[in-house]
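User: Second chain of the day. Same drill as before.
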Amino acid sequence: MKSNVGSVDRIARIVLGLGLIGMTLSGTIGAWGWLGVVPLATGAIGWCPPYAIFGINTCSVKK
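Assistant: Same format as last time:
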């Protein structure tokens, strides 16, 4: 698995995932907030399956 998620994208995914999970745990939003596990996981491992399918890569280009 080659990394296809760049650093800014990873940070955004992790923050979004933690935010959704935190709001679910505090009771602010419903159970759908557990979907925050998906962006949290893809941000943590640096690989996104839909990006791979569609050929998207947000990693910086190495010269």
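The chain has one domain: 7-54.

User: Great, on to the next one.
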